[in-house]
Amino acid sequence: MVDRITSENDFLVLVDRCFDLTTPHQLSLRGDDCAELAMPEAICLSSDLFLEDVHFRTAYFSFYEIGHKALAVNLSDLAAAGAVPLGFNMNLILPAPTPRSAVEQLLRGMSELAAAHNLPLTGGDLSQGQKLGLCISIWGKQAGRKFLRRGGCRPGDTLFIAADSRPLPLGLARAGLYSLESLGRGNALSLAPDACKRHLLPNPLIRAGIAIAKLAPETALMDLSDGLARDLPRLLGYNHAGLSLNKRTHSPEHAPAVSLGAEIALTDCALHPELLAWCRRSGLNPVEQAVLGGEDYLLLGSTDKPELLKTIEAEADGFYCLVIGKVNDSGMIMVNGNEFSQTGFDHFSG
Amino acid sequence: MVDRITSENDFLVLVDRCFDLTTPHQLSLRGDDCAELAMPEAICLSSDLFLEDVHFRTAYFSFYEIGHKALAVNLSDLAAAGAVPLGFNMNLILPAPTPRSAVEQLLRGMSELAAAHNLPLTGGDLSQGQKLGLCISIWGKQAGRKFLRRGGCRPGDTLFIAADSRPLPLGLARAGLYSLESLGRGNALSLAPDACKRHLLPNPLIRAGIAIAKLAPETALMDLSDGLARDLPRLLGYNHAGLSLNKRTHSPEHAPAVSLGAEIALTDCALHPELLAWCRRSGLNPVEQAVLGGEDYLLLGSTDKPELLKTIEAEADGFYCLVIGKVNDSGMIMVNGNEFSQTGFDHFSG
Question: What whole-number distance in Å separates Cα of residue B245 and Cα of residue B264?
Fold first, then answer.
């Protein structure tokens, strides 16, 4: 048998093999113009593109990992909202020479992650294209009495990161990416297996988001997709062009009364050994690389009730809330006493 | 000023200029990880890819038309479900050299169609890529007491097409596509303006779908995206590989009790003059080309209450329900007494 997709129907056979056809959320079966879905009063919804040579490379990603990560980065957006995932649509752009077995591996990587979250595939689209690409839309319901959002931080609030392992894996996916790019999959996996896994198979922190939404619904929360240095200003209510988000959204209740800043404290020994080893080999500063980060898919929160963090940790096994600093009114991000911008320490003193 | 997108924020400025920030459907403003949306008890949801050199060519599409059509083909899926559109997410893949003014035209084409349907843009994603591409997810609520679907047809049912103009524009978008491909935009638009407009700026039949859902909720309905020859077997409950849809979906209530077929009657004089002229120039049979069609974005329905079609037409100005034939138990599609397959007349007798 030739290892290729012979028709759209052939593709649908693979989809049906990997994803259940019926779930309580779906009022109809896949295969019509639209999916019919039962809905709660309010949902949160997110869409993300995951494209070859922009977000991943087939040189060091397996197809299983591509399928997993495409869904994982979308689930991470729901985790940031403190939401319980309800369903997703998958749109797949497939180059003509893609082997059928590779497509099956991609669907397998996606369906195993979906099954771990009881998440039905409700529909989507398939098209040929020059490069592999995925576009996923995902939605969920409130775990607590509201969805969590960015903004609303005040001076004195405690900044924390929810993570699924210790030591703090901040910057670890960055170390994985650079190792994979420079060394190739085999060598990078031997030298830095945890770092590579962070980049290839991120673990969306759904349970952490749900616990925070239930126990501390006033927390400002977002997921770290672009690195702490770029995402922290967004949590504080500033977008990456330096404009106040409230100017963009006309939302006076979220307008910071003062020019917010933050003081972050991080030591090398709080960071993952593989990040430290990569920085040693490359002549880089570990704290700077951890703060620059990128694709961490940890949760970054701000709360005025830091005493709740222990309760939140106890709610769900397997994740940790690590305090990294405090919000202040300085209008600057300081890391270990030095000013930090989106490109690193501005006055870097070693 | 250089005519290019300088940052993600620059793109968001264009988006905000074209699409309203606040609508009743949205519980939060754009700009967070997820959109928060108010929802009815049931929605229908659809996603479609719209990709350069697969679904459109920049050689003869303006950017305004690309933005319009990307949304229109998704709206057509909601029309087929008899749904009232509620909102959509847009994911855009943008080649680096795309001029800023072109992006603005694309957004303008999309936002004008969205505004015509009171449809808010709730979120999405932006990424670089080699070729221009869009992925839209769209959802809507019931206009009547249920959503319309394919299947459930019985011998004796009347087959009709809901269209927005007379004569029946079936196959007209096909004539437009082939004219644009062979003659280029300027010549094709001079020679066959209606046909080109059908391909470049399709009009989704939302009001027709809503009227059918309200007045004839037992109608089987779908939109004609792949042409009558490929879509009619799907309406009857057979997918394009010839497998019974109910085998795929395990839905016994929709299983045809007999092997359904259809008898279609179409004459040249029922078809658009530009289709007739194109067929004359190209030595093609107009009825065959109309049935092969493709990207018609008309609605194909089957009902056992054909007397309702006049009432439906009266409900909303500007569209027509044209009877094209009857469902039977022959297991074959016959057009004017000749067997018709997905490639045209099997025994074509001129």
Answer: 22
